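Try this one yourself first.
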């Protein structure tokens, strides 16, 4: 179960008592005081553990009490101080005093610590109370009581995996099948209007936080459809599960479209590892076309997997593969520190140069889109042509006088101009 809020009670350890003791040795009839001090009580410390991503541990334990320090002893021996009680929390945990509402800390960095309650000081032994008037002090100090607080923990989460795909690809069905999330599901596009988070517990030690990103359409980087708002959520994930709709007219064209939209929005998105998953194989016609899709994806360097989110078929292998990719992915900074990436250059910027061989289009965005287009697929080619129209490249080429049959060079690709 995904838990993003919790209330707990914490109390640091009490200091050990100081000893009241006098030397008792042979031939020393009036030995002076030698009672030692008590040890310090244990502090309560919250520490970020980067492998955690929920507050679910606090469902089962709500009370945390530190150890007390040990009492002092004879011969001025100080009691042993208690070890601090360290409570692991996930990155992004905000800590409030539940009674006053005061903000105590915002834990965002790996291994960051926050001392919530300081352990009580150890009591002084009677050796500290000797004076000219009191040569035999029969007094010492008890240990200082520990501090106690009621805490409210609130988690601002970073998803491990972002699920992307065209509208109605089955992203919400997949999220619902592998987590306790309850997204809206229906057989029409744009069912999901906002990102949904879910936590999948693979076993007692491993879990994944998945984010269902609303369906992306052509022009999303420019605000089309549900706009580029949701593209920003993908930047915060470590791995992308790219879900393909098995009933689509052209799944490979869909795949190209989504990758192009992500690349146009942010060049760094193309560096994230993708796990490509072909959905709806419980339908006979989809299962029949799966080998051809798998072969096409393999040709371009993707070891795709096939599932049925609705029938909950072959989901576990996908999740374990995603976990493997997450563990090997570069470390993502916590929610408060993570940068919001922006494209280095405006995607609309490009230049056209006329050469003796044809026209050369220079532009980071259009060249990235060309590199990510599967030219052997007609659907992908058509989508790239629409992209050129959207960015205004077609109109600009006509303005500089391009004619039928002339060549257009975009990056390493040569295209023939046809009206």
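Now uncover the answer:
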């Amino acid at each position: 179960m995904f838990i993003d809020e919790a209330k707990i009670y914490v109390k640091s350890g009490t200091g050990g008592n100081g000893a009241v003791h006098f030397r008792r040795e042979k031939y020393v009839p009036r030995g002076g005081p030698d009672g030692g001090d008590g040890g310090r009580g244990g502090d309560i410390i919250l520490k970020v553990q980067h492998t955690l991503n929920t507050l679910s541990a606090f469902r089962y334990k709500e009370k945390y009490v530190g150890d007390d320090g040990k009492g002092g002893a004879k011969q001025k021996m100080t009691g042993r101080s208690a070890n601090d009680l360290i409570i692991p929390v996930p990155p992004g945990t905000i800590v409030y005093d539940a009674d006053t509402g005061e903000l105590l800390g915002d834990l965002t960095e790996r291994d960051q610590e926050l001392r919530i309650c300081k352990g009580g000081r150890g009591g002084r032994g009677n050796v500290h109370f000797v004076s000219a008037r009191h040569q035999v002090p029969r007094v010492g100090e008890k240990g200082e009581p520990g501090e106690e607080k009621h805490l409210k923990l609130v988690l601002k989460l970073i998803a491990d995996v972002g699920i992307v795909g065209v509208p109605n690809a089955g992203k919400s069905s997949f999220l619902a099948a592998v987590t306790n999330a309850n997204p809206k599901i229906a057989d029409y596009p744009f069912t999901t209007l906002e990102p949904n988070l879910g936590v999948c517990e693979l076993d007692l030690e491993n879990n994944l936080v998945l984010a269902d990103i609303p369906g992306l359409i052509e022009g999303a980087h420019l605000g089309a459809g549900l706009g580029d708002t949701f593209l920003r959520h993908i930047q915060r994930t470590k791995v992308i599960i790219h879900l393909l709709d098995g009933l689509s007219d052209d799944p490979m064209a869909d795949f190209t479209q989504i990758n192009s939209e992500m690349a146009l929005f942010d060049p760094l998105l193309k560096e994230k590892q993708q796990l490509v998953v072909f959905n709806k194989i419980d339908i006979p016609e989809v299962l029949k076309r799966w080998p051809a899709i798998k072969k096409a994806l393999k040709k371009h360097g993707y070891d795709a997997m096939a599932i049925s989110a609705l029938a909950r078929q072959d989901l576990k292998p996908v999740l374990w593969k995603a976990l493997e990719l997450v563990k090997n992915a570069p470390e993502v900074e916590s929610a408060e520190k993570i940068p919001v990436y922006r494209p280095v250059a405006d995607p609309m910027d490009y230049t056209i140069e006329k050469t003796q061989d044809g026209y050369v289009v220079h532009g980071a965005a259009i060249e990235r889109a060309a590199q990510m287009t599967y030219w052997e697929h007609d659907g992908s080619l058509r989508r790239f042509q629409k992209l050129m129209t959207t960015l205004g490249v077609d109109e600009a080429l006509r303005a500089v006088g391009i004619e039928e049959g002339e060549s257009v060079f975009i990056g390493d690709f040569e295209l023939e101009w046809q009206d």
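Discussion: The longest strand covers residues 148-155. The chain is about 20% helix and 20% strand.
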